[in-house]
Amino acid sequence: MATVTLMPDVRRWSMLGLGVFAQASSAVFIHGVPFLLPALTDRGMSLPTAGLLVAMPTVGLVCTLIAWGYVVDRIGERKVLVGGPLVMLAAGSAAATVTNTVALGALLLLGGVGAASTNGASGRVIVGWFPPERRGLAMGIRQTAQPLGVGVGALAIPAVAAAHGVSAAILVPAVMAGIAAAGCFFGIVDPPRPEGKAADRTNPYRGDSTLWRIHAVSVLLCIPQGVVWTFALLWLHRDVGWSLPVAGALVTATQILGAFGRIGAGAWSDRVGSRLGPLRTVAVAAVISMGALGLTAWTHWWWAAIPLLIAASVITVSDNGLAFTAVAEIAGPYWSGRGLGVQNTGQNLAMAAIPPAFGALITTSGFPAAYLVAGILAAAAVPLVPGARSVREQE
């Protein structure tokens, strides 16, 4: 796209920063609300009820990702990046004023609906404004929004809830969303889209399995990621024998390293001029790291298992930005919103199934079995990765 080169670098990077902040505010709403569990149960709410309540933002997210993608494709990115965070602001602000549990759940659900908006929109802004040889790096940076949001939620929400109550804690992501909406209103410019060519609007899923294969690969590869994220703390505490503070510090460190891993994978894809080639390599590395982790966990070779846990934590998140960028590039300017919506829906559904499914497996067979099964599922992703193509071929 010739128009991409006309955008000053400072403007591109400022829009990337706004996209990251908007996505991070969504991540705080989705992944930060569960940090209210201690406060909710301390005030007398049963754990099942509290668990259902804090799951409501995720339900709203999963149910509307594809719908928001359709809206992005119809009206553009800027309006969605303003409107969605405004929904979060309104829902969060209202949730901070209610005392009825049902009303609180409904408003948290609505907040999740608003949070879903940033997934496809901020991605398309990056693909639309950055040239192909820099998109991987930019999208890798954008993909750090989730761990950043989780980190902010983990630090802020329990502390605010303990000091000022649940209502004040819910305002944390709501205020962030309001700031994001204002920033996107003034700072986001919709990337140009070609006009007048029917081919540009053709359904990229029709007659071509490439996107479906990438979606399937991403679902399979998010399973080892989810297993490590969900159970690493418990494994370090129960099997390895570490204290919870020490184990928590290591898990936090792996989140930070994982964010850098996403950036590095994106930069690597820019250097080699392909998203799918690096994606296949990451898939193979995920299989090897999870298999080795399962073996060393089974043999209690902690001297090797701990470094392998760190390596697996980085490797298993490095595919996210690669697949996300490939979907946006291959789907094109009139279908990228829906493509990214499908991508995120599949991953979120898989992630939601991981705690109960692998929790049951760990109960019956132990942590090593969970790591090995996750590695086997990652192995199924390797042959599904489409043949490598250059980023220019994806335009």
Descriptive notes:
With 395 residues, the protein is mainly alpha-helical. The chain has 2 domains: 2-191, MFS general substrate transporter like domains (Growth Hormone, Chain: A, Up-down Bundle), CATH 1.20.1250.20; 202-384, MFS general substrate transporter like domains (Growth Hormone, Chain: A). The protein is built from 16 helices and no strands. Helix 10 (210-240) runs parallel beside helix 15 and helix 12 (276-299) packs antiparallel against helix 16. It is globular and about 60 Å long.
Tally the helices: what do you get?
Answer: 16
Uncertain spans: 1-5
Structural class: mainly alpha
Percent helix, as a range, is over 70%
Total beta-strand segments = 0
Q: What's the CATH H-level superfamily name of the largest domain?
A: MFS general substrate transporter like domains
- How many domains comprise the coordinates? 2
Strand and helix order: HHHHHHHHHHHHHHHH
CATH architecture of the largest domain: Up-down Bundle
* Beta-strand percent range: under 5%
**Could you give the distance between the termini?**
9 Å
Rg, nearest Å: 21 Å
Shape: globular
Chain-averaged pLDDT: 89
Biggest β-sheet strands, sense, barrel:
none
CATH top-level class of the largest domain: Mainly Alpha
The CATH topology label of the largest domain is Growth Hormone, Chain: A
